[in-house]
Amino acid sequence: MGSSHSMSEEIQELAEKTGFTSEQIEHLHRRFKQLSGDQPTIRKEHFDNIPDLEFNPIRSKIVHAFFDKRNLRQESDGLADEINFEDFLTIMSYFRPIEMNMNEEQLDHFRKEKLKFLFHMYDSDHDGKITLQEYRNVVEELLSGNPHLEKESARSIADGAMMEAASICVGQMEPDQVYEGITFEDFLKMWQGIDIETKMHVRFLNMETIAQCH
């Protein structure tokens, strides 16, 4: 960010784009500089400096999400090699807590944006569907820290969840019918009535990622 007048204008512009307050933006800018080593961009290896992420079972997916161009609201697909501060703020904005003054339309948009971010974490091949294998991968990673759970148990949990998803989204299936995978519309149905707004956020002070992607 620049200096004095231009900097305050830039902060105001970023506040309008992301919904963060000026104070939050300044705090996140300090955190960004700390992570990047005072460089203008962050690369994946910079996330090795976040101790709280070290033991997160889906650490790789969280880091990957910061560079996913779908989350950066870019027209192209794939992964970015590095992100600047505005990109960093865009990603962090998915984790903003709910605001009391939001109307119903804003709340609905806010919720969909969070769920889209979460959907992208599951949809690792970017084809717009979460396949059984992708779902298994996430569940296996989430449960990898549990020494009492075999890989087969994790797979059974994923398979059961996928069957439930099919029944919610497709209804009664024919014996020979194959459920291709969870589309974003299906994903919205599955999360109906679940409080994603409070389950998915990042603490500003230490960027400790908590309680997301169950």
From TrEMBL:
<dbReference type="InterPro" id="IPR002048">
    <property type="entry name" value="EF_hand_dom"/>
</dbReference>
<dbReference type="GO" id="GO:0030154">
    <property type="term" value="P:cell differentiation"/>
</dbReference>
<keyword id="KW-0472">Membrane</keyword>
<keyword id="KW-0966">Cell projection</keyword>
<keyword id="KW-0221">Differentiation</keyword>
<dbReference type="GO" id="GO:0005634">
    <property type="term" value="C:nucleus"/>
</dbReference>
<keyword id="KW-0649">Protein kinase inhibitor</keyword>
<keyword id="KW-0106">Calcium</keyword>
<keyword id="KW-0479">Metal-binding</keyword>
<dbReference type="Pfam" id="PF00036">
    <property type="entry name" value="EF-hand_1"/>
</dbReference>
<dbReference type="InterPro" id="IPR011992">
    <property type="entry name" value="EF-hand-dom_pair"/>
</dbReference>
<keyword id="KW-0449">Lipoprotein</keyword>
<keyword id="KW-0519">Myristate</keyword>
<keyword id="KW-0539">Nucleus</keyword>
<dbReference type="GO" id="GO:0005737">
    <property type="term" value="C:cytoplasm"/>
</dbReference>
<keyword id="KW-1003">Cell membrane</keyword>
<feature type="domain" description="EF-hand">
    <location>
        <begin position="110"/>
        <end position="145"/>
    </location>
</feature>
<protein>
    <recommendedName>
        <fullName>Calcineurin B homologous protein 3</fullName>
    </recommendedName>
</protein>
<dbReference type="InterPro" id="IPR052490">
    <property type="entry name" value="CHP3"/>
</dbReference>
<dbReference type="InterPro" id="IPR018247">
    <property type="entry name" value="EF_Hand_1_Ca_BS"/>
</dbReference>
<dbReference type="GO" id="GO:0004860">
    <property type="term" value="F:protein kinase inhibitor activity"/>
</dbReference>
<dbReference type="GO" id="GO:0032587">
    <property type="term" value="C:ruffle membrane"/>
</dbReference>
<dbReference type="GO" id="GO:0030027">
    <property type="term" value="C:lamellipodium"/>
</dbReference>
<keyword id="KW-0963">Cytoplasm</keyword>
<dbReference type="GO" id="GO:0005509">
    <property type="term" value="F:calcium ion binding"/>
</dbReference>
<comment type="similarity">
    <text>Belongs to the calcineurin regulatory subunit family. CHP subfamily.</text>
</comment>
